[in-house]
């Protein structure tokens, strides 16, 4: 696993020019990278939440560290010719930040020149350095450095070039990183970078290796704990990191594009408005269940084609069929095991989505917890999951004609038909107990932090595998536990 402490990396002396690196595959072991990483980590200790270096006494050392960072970027840049323009602008942004006295950083000029979505080639690497937050990681805009590698298998390229276009999607894996990514963060988004204005959204990168590694660790523990016997394909996911990575890339490709597709009662670009967290639960679950549905559709189409015997599936279609089956297992198990139990109980919208899927399958007699053993009626899974997805789609379609608050109430009703709300909930007392005569904000405030507590099943499971979930913080595809 990449290391993120300064004990193994020493900031080079000012004026010591690192050797130029021309091969990206050697970047993480180069003096230029280790020097850059050490300088960034030391600089982080001088920064505060907004990214500035407030103490004048620290500015001299900050300037030295920025000089090391810039020299290291220059030495590494020849190994990343596709990022040359970005790297030049990056050094200029660092220079301007230092010259202006280390106030709140503004790296818009370099950010708009970084375009990983234009280079979706399997194995291509990028050197990324920005003052930035990391989602589910660091809430401070500190200087972070990360080496990444694109995952772009042929079958995904063909899928994206066809019915599942998503020009902004960039699936990646970690090569090495600074502490902001030694966390639960699994995304690299441009809006997390410190800039004077928010740029037009042009790309979004997801660390499929981290997603796959933590999935494998948690699902392995959950299956062992519950006595769940996994089908052969599902078991393969838990033993093959590369296979799991490709599966998550396909899942993420379809999930990501779904946020802007379908019968949407709201502007997808306004999804981050303040609203009851269970609405985010349904939106994220809708996108995951769409990935599940489309994978079922692809599987059934290709299986029918193969059964007809008119033609042999191409290699790409054979890989697509294999991964379409696997996406279904990944969505199911990640949702009901890892999502449901990861994070705090404070407005845990992803957790609620997992709780809803588990309870739906249980109450529709597809999933069983009997004699302290979990069993699943596998032939029934696909249609039952598709039915839940259809319920959410129907809610969205109907709510195009509803006022906002009426949509919120209908969404709450959908969830509570399956997941039991907190007995102390005002929302659970139905509309007559809610402040409907005031602004929508009051309704959001009335939602409890833990509006939908864990069931007794999940409470017991959490005690058994909670430590495994915690151990996946900072995990990558090359971590020992993966």
Could you list some keywords that capture this structure?
single chain, 482 residues, alpha+beta, 2 domains, two-stranded antiparallel ribbon, 15 helices, 7 strands, 49% helix, DUF6421
For the secondary structure, the number of strands is 7
Major sheet characteristics = 5 strands, mixed
Order of helices and strands: HHHHEEHEEEHHHHHHEEHHHH
Total helices: the number is 15
Report the sheet-strand fraction: 5-15%
InterPro entries: DUF6421
Written description of the protein model:
Helix content is 49%, strand content 8%. With 482 residues, the chain is α+β, with helices and mostly antiparallel strands. The protein folds into two domains: 6-202, no CATH class; 212-471, no CATH class. The strands form two sheets. It has a five-stranded mixed beta sheet. A two-stranded antiparallel ribbon has the order 6-7. It is globular, with a radius of gyration of 24 Å. Pfam families: DUF6421 (PF19985). InterPro entries: DUF6421.
SSE topology sketch:
Layout: H1 31-44, H2 59-76, H3 84-99, H4 108-111, E1 125-132, E2 142-150, H5 154-161, E3 169-177, E4 187-188, E5 204-207, H6 208-226, H7 232-239, H8 241-258, H9 277-308, H10 315-341, H11 349-363, E6 367-370, E7 373-376, H12 378-399, H13 404-416, H14 440-445, H15 456-471
Parallel strand pairs: 3-5
Antiparallel strand pairs: 1-2, 2-3, 4-5, 6-7
């Amino acid at each position: 696993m990449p290391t993120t402490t300064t004990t193994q990396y020493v900031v080079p002396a000012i004026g010591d020019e690192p050797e130029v690196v021309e091969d990206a595959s050697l970047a993480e072991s180069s003096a230029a990278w280790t020097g850059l990483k050490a300088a960034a980590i030391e600089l982080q200790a001088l920064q505060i939440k907004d990214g500035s270096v407030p103490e004048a006494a620290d500015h001299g050392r900050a300037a030295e560290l920025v000089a090391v960072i810039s020299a290291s970027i220059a030495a590494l840049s020849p190994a990343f010719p596709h990022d040359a323009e970005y790297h030049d602008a990056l050094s200029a942004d660092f220079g301007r930040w230092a010259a202006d006295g280390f106030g709140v950083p503004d790296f818009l000029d370099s950010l708009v020149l970084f375009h990983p979505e234009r280079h979706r080639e399997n194995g291509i690497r990028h050197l990324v350095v920005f003052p930035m937050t990391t989602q589910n990681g660091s809430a401070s805009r500190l200087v972070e450095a990360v080496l990444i590698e694109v995952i772009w298998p042929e079958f995904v390229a063909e899928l994206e070039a066809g019915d599942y276009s998503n020009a902004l999607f960039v699936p990646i894996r970690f090569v090495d990183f600074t502490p902001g990514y030694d966390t639960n963060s699994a995304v690299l988004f441009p809006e997390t970078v410190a800039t004077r204005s928010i740029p037009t959204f042009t790309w979004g990168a997801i660390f499929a290796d981290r997603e796959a590694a933590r999935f494998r660790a948690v699902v392995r523990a959950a299956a062992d704990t519950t006595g769940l016997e996994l089908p052969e394909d599902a078991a393969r996911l838990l033993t093959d990191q590369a296979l799991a990575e490709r599966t998550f890339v396909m899942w993420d490709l379809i999930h990501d594009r779904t946020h802007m597709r379908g019968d949407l009662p709201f502007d997808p670009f306004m999804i981050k408005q303040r609203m009851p967290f269970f609405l985010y639960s349904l939106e994220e679950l809708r996108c995951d269940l769409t990935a599940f549905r489309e994978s079922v559709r692809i599987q059934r189409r290709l299986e029918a084609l193969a059964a007809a015997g008119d033609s042999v599936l191409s290699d790409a279609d054979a890989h697509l069929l294999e991964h379409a089956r696997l996406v279904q297992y990944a969505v199911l198990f990640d949702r009901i095991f890892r999502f449901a139990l990861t994070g705090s109980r404070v407005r845990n919208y992803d957790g609620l989505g997992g709780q809803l899927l588990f309870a739906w399958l249980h109450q529709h007699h597809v999933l069983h917890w009997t004699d302290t053993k979990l069993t699943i009626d596998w032939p029934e899974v696909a249609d039952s999951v598709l039915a839940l997805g259809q319920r959410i789609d129907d809610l969205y379609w109907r709510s195009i004609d509803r006022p906002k608050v009426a949509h919120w109430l209908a969404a709450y009703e959908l969830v509570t038909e399956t997941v039991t709300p907190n007995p102390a909930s005002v929302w659970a007392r139905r509309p007559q107990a809610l402040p409907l005569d005031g602004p929508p904000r009051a309704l959001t405030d009335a939602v409890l932090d833990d509006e939908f507590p864990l069931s007794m099943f999940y409470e017991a499971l959490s005690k058994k595998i909670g430590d495994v979930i915690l151990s996946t913080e900072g995990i990558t595809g090359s971590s020992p536990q993966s």
